[in-house]
Backbone:
């Protein structure tokens, strides 16, 4: 990692040059809600002026740049009793500007799952390697809880990370590519003062969190509370719409589907991101549904997010961006569900302490 | 202005760095084929019953054939291009490097289409995936194999293994139950198993006609006919979930330790690689942590049975 | 070598219309890019919109429209007798569709209003499955040609043909759309079956549920959502009733 500082006007010139030379995406105002709140989205940008550097958070994550909602994995061409299979992984270079620390942490988690296991995904790898990621720090929204999961800062997984220290950006340069491009622009080594400003900025961010979730020993609590009535309570609110998983930066579950071409001379094998909240996620051949109830499916999503599975060493995969909470039409959010789960036990603790053992 | 100096070059896709942790089934530096299958020629199809056929496959590419290795208990994803893929446990000997045998029941649309195939046609396989029966650990012990219905299919691989290393094992019992006599699969191999492999075979059917001379009833009734040296026995149980629940609790009562009973769980695997999460049971992947589990692990799995 | 798995026979196909706008059948003749391939899957025996030829030896019948006259019932029964596979095609056939709005008024009133008192027979509108057994439904107003192509391909190849079981929200989120509830609208997306690629909501038009309810929807939670957002119950009722697709979910 190399650290530099760059003045904001010079930074804009740098981004403009990058954006003009590459297929680039950045945060832009997409809509305003009925009550006037801005809605941001990662959209194509062709000049620096189109990028909203002061955006809060995008409604949907940047996951789909790396893990498309649907993707053709493989193609077959039939001839006679034989066929040929062709799989293509190539990805075109993309510049992605303005990812938050939590978004980049999410990519690091996806790296763990999709690249570092026994079966690395070439499709994901191609996109990950060909995406130039520029991070941008920000002050948390009132409902962000990434700090609880230690994802409010990030030290790897990006090409360039920019911290706003007032007149300048403090740059963490994490790739030779970024370093080479920046050589063309006026940057300076950070001064003592710049370092102080960065520390202050980090402290400000860290102190600005208003939402906190106690995630300590959550994996064990989730295991113990497998049959908790909390799941049914929240499950009864759930619309089964899958929105949470779609906007989530780390939900990666999918289904595979094979389709004949309309001319019947070939077929394709496709992956479609799926959500464990969708009704038929756990349906097996013969039609049996292993998770028939809303609560079962909701619970399963929390298991995956907060207990973690073997593929990434049983680590939580939630980064605390609360996109699922914001997008949920039924007002289900991690903070309330997890607190409820803890409360359940905490209120039980009262009876335990009053049990005959004490007398 | 398009300034070429800032155009990001296309990257090479170097998979080597990420392929280092590929499980080593004698394949060493080979990169696991997970996205593109091994093309296989169907060399033979044997009708076992109306609903079950045994497919014999041969990997088309000689080099790929050389590197394809599996362990008894593992499964693969069998793909009929255009129709989709299904998880099938491997029924042939792990020492057989020329052919792969898969016992397939006609259940869904993919298997129905597979039943329309003929020798000479091509299918694709991905894998092998999943855990296997601990054949080495079982060395020096008695072995009790219990199969219900199609459960005999995954048991064929360990049976071949035992046959090839017969001197390493003490008594080997195979208890095999089916609905009707006609549904006992591989009956043409029974004699071979008994005489060549010295396996004590006990069969039972739920419903039988006059011509059936064997036992009738549930598979657990066969336990009355055998004596088990529980301290020195390993058990492998394959069949429908209800069956292994009953069988395993029986074996538990005999005193076989739970971590010496092995079952093969079935879920609808999609990817086989622990990525798609479709076959999750509790927080366990059937496709990479399983399909072979010891009974102790299964007991502790939420939603398992 | 002839390949028994990849050699297919054309479907002996017929298409019929009942009370409808024939817009769904028109969709079959749309999407020029794949039109030739699409029709090479079919041996068209009867299809008034594209051909004047008429034969009764079809196996697969696509039926568009709802039933609102007694002679239509006769015709439909005859089609059912001939067809091995009968596909209800379009929202009118699957749910009654817009035509069902008529059922809210006395039949005489409708006849007087529309036909100015001419002696016209008109029954309350019914969906196809109210009269005969339906083997497969392809909802949509109009149907999505892409989905029809896929289902026809699956009928030809003997693959599994299913509609998505999840709601429109999934596809809407794939398009990265801003939720219409956040824009202050009532949208039936959370309870309507996907498969349309969220074409309406992507155009910022709330979903009216032309594809009917998704599997296992949580209707009480949906009512609560509309309530909580302070949106009009009347507007909701109107949207739910528009295509008659949510008959099974009465809104209090």
Residues:
């Amino acid at each position: 990692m190399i650290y530099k500082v760059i003045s904001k006007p010079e930074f804009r010139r740098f981004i403009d040059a990058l954006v003009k030379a590459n297929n680039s995406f950045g945060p832009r105002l997409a809509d305003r809600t009925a009550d006037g709140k801005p809605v941001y989205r990662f959209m194509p940008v062709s000049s620096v002026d189109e990028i909203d550097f002061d955006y809060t958070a995008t409604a949907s994550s940047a996951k789909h740049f790396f893990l498309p909602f649907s993707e053709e994995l493989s193609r077959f061409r039939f001839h006679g009793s034989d066929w040929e299979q062709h799989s293509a992984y190539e990805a075109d270079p993309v510049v992605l500007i303005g990812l938050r620390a939590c978004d980049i942490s999410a990519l690091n988690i996806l790296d763990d799952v999709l690249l570092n296991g026994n079966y690395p995904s070439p499709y994901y790898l191609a996109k990950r390697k060909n995406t130039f990621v520029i991070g941008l720090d920000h002050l948390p929204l009132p409902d962000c809880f990434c700090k609880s999961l230690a994802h409010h800062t990030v030290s790897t997984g990006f090409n360039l990370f920019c911290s706003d220290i007032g007149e300048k950006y403090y740059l963490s340069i994490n790739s030779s590519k970024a370093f080479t491009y920046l050589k063309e622009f006026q940057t300076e080594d950070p001064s003592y003062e710049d370092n102080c400003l960065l520390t202050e900025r980090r402290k400000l961010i860290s102190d600005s969190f208003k939402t906190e979730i106690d995630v300590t020993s959550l994996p064990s609590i989730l295991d113990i509370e497998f049959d908790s009535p909390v799941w049914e309570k929240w499950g009864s609110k759930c619309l089964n719409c899958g929105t949470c998983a779609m906007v989530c930066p780390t939900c990666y579950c999918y289904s595979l589907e094979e389709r004949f071409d309309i001319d019947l001379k070939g077929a394709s094998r496709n992956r479609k991101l799926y959500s464990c909240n969708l009704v038929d996620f756990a349906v097996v051949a013969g039609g049996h549904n292993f998770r028939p109830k809303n609560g079962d499916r909701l619970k399963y999503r929390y298991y995956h997010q907060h207990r973690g599975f073997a593929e990434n060493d049983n680590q939580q995969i939630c980064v605390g961006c609360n996109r699922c909470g914001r997008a949920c039409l039924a007002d289900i959010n991690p903070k309330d569900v997890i607190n409820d789960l803890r409360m359940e036990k905490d209120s039980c603790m009262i009876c335990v302490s009053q049990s005959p053992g004490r007398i | 202005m398009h300034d070429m100096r800032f155009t990001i070059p296309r990257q090479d896709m170097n998979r080597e760095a990420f392929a280092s942790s590929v499980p080593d089934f004698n394949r060493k530096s080979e990169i696991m084929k997970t996205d593109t299958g091994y093309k296989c020629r169907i060399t033979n199809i044997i009708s076992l019953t109306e609903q079950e056929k045994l497919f014999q496959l041969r990997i088309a590419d000689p080099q790929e054939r050389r590197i394809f290795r599996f362990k008894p208990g593992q499964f693969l994803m069998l793909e009929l291009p255009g129709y989709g893929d299904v998880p099938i446990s491997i029924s042939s000997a792990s020492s057989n490097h020329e052919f792969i045998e898969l016992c397939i029941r006609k259940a869904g649309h993919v298997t129905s289409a597979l039943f329309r195939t003929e020798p000479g046609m091509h299918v694709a396989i991905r894998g092998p995936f999943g855990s296997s029966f601990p054949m080495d650990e079982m060395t020096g012990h008695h072995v009790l194999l219990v199969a219900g219905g199609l459960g005999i299919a995954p048991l064929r691989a360990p049976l071949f293994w035992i046959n090839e290393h017969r001197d390493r094992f003490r008594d080997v019992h195979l208890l095999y139950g089916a609905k009707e006599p006609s549904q006992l699969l591989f009956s043409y191999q029974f004699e071979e198993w008994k005489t060549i492999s010295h396996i004590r075979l006990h069969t039972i059917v739920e419903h039988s006609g006059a011509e059936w001379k064997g036992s009738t009833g549930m598979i657990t009734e066969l336990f009355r006919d055998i004596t088990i040296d529980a301290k020195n026995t390993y058990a492998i149980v394959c069949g429908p979930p209800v069956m292994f629940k009953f069988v395993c609790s029986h074996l538990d009562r005999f005193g076989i330790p739970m971590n010496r009973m092995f079952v093969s769980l079935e879920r609808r695997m999609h990817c086989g690689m622990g990525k798609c999460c479709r076959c999750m049971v509790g927080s366990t992947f059937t496709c990479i942590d399983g399909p072979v589990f010891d009974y102790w692990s299964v007991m502790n799995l939420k939603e398992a049975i | 070598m002839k390949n028994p798995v990849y050699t297919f026979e054309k479907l002996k196909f017929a298409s019929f219309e009942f009370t409808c706008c024939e817009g769904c059948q028109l969709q079959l003749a749309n999407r020029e890019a794949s039109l030739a391939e699409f029709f090479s899957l079919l041996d068209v025996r009867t299809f008034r919109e594209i051909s004047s030829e008429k034969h009764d030896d079809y196996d697969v019948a696509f039926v568009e429209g709802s039933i609102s006259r007694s002679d239509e019932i006769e015709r439909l029964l005859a089609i059912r007798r001939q067809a091995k596979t009968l596909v209800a095609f379009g929202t009118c056939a699957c749910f009654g569709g817009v035509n069902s709005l008529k059922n809210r008024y006395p039949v005489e009133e409708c006849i007087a209003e529309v036909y100015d008192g001419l002696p016209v027979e008109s029954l309350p509108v019914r969906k196809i499955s109210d009269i005969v057994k339906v083997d497969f439904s392809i909802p949509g107003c109009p149907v999505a040609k892409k989905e029809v192509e896929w289902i026809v391909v699956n009928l030809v190849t003997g693959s599994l043909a299913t509609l998505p079981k999840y709601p429109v929200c999934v596809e809407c989120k794939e398009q990265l759309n801003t939720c219409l509830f956040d824009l202050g609208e009532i949208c039936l997306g959370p309870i309507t079956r996907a498969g349309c690629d969220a074409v309406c909501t992507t155009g910022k038009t709330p979903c009216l549920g032309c594809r009917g309810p998704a599997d296992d929807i949580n209707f009480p939670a949906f009512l609560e959502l509309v309530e909580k957002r302070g949106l009009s119950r009347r507007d909701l009722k109107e949207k739910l009733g528009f295509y008659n697709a949510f008959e099974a979910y009465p809104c209090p």
Observations:
- Confidence is low (pLDDT under 50) at residues 15-30 of chain B.
- Chain B has two domains: 36-129, 135-299.
